[in-house]
User: What shape does this take?
Amino acid sequence: MASETETSSQGNSAFLNTDFIQTSHVGSLPRSPKLLAANAAQANNPEDRAAYEELLSISVQDIVAKQREVGITLPNDGEYGHTMSNSVDYGAWWNYSFSRLGGLTPGGVDRWQSEDKVRSEPGKIRLTSMKDRRDRQRFNEAYNDETSGILTGRKPVSQPSFSGPITYIGQDAVRRDIDNLKSALASNGYSTGFLPALSPGSASRLTNEYYATDEELVYACADAMREEYVAIIDAGLTVQIDDPSIAENWDMINPEPSIEDYLAFTRLRVEALNYALRGLPQDQIRFHLCWGSWHGPHTTDLPFKELAKTMLSINAGAYSFEAANVRHEHEWKVWQDLTLPEDKVVLPGVVSHATNVVEHPELVADRIERFAKVLGRERVIASTDCGLGGRVHPQIAWAKLESLSEGARLASQRLWS
Assistant: This one.
């Protein structure tokens, strides 16, 4: 087998395995209490900024070393440059963009508690508030029970609105993230890593007070976020496009639309993303799809079979999706009827962010082998369903990643024996 930090490659894609199953994760990893406190301090007092930046650089070194220790072969910076509001935070993957996009006006409403209801009209789909989502309406008592574990422990986070032309103003921040990760990769013997970045479709889900149409809004987000994608790729890293909107928007439309109308609504967001990715090398692009990271019932999730072809139309070299949680594990069978281009790979979740139970390595190996038998051992990278940071306790998160790596080792022995 190759060394733990060696990236296998074959054919036209740097993602393809050669003689072992590579391991990765979706991005977010647990932050230390010290880093969370330093972020809060600098947010309230600019004089504390330098101390925060120094600690951030050190923390990225530590988190990359930790990933090497547990056997992750395709690491990142833990999304440490995407600051979390609290030890429990389901939205850091999106909220970080608020400081990297110009044209926003700060808001004062927590999206999870907003009472605003925007009902869809015949022939026109509209996204509604979190409180009016269909899963939340179906399990209203559970969502409103602070002891249920669904939203327990999260800190309210207000969202801004689009009030002017959208621009990208995050050049310094993304350069910092790039420099921190590249330094940590070099220190730990890795040749490359990845940085997550928000998709245009997900970025556009704020209240719009400026653009006349959805199309104008989404493409403006595409033009702005492209700058971040280009910066990451030009630095020799892989960019991961975080885009829960492709799947999660389904539950944010009330009443439930037809599949046909929803896919037409989604097509604009996919076309805008492909526009933002135009001309960029697919072997440095991975795409992440999920149904939302909060710990709810998810009974109104759109089946993966309705989204798979849309996902594959995105110009990426690798596709990450949930395949371990109890609402979606059975959907591995969808791949029996799909054609995955030969130079592309999948990163199915083989451990879940949605449970505190640590998956047994044998189960992880079984999950990997299911995909390998259908798609080929070269085209399966073991990953997580979603980010673990802010979703499960740090001790549990690291135990899950250890189990992921051990399961990948077992699967590799069987698949290359």
In short: Strands lie at 101-105, 161-168, 194-198, 207-208, 238-242, 285-289, 318-321, 345-351, 383-384. The chain has one domain: 33-415. The first helix runs from residue 33 to 44. The CA atoms of residues 272 and 319 lie 18 Å apart.
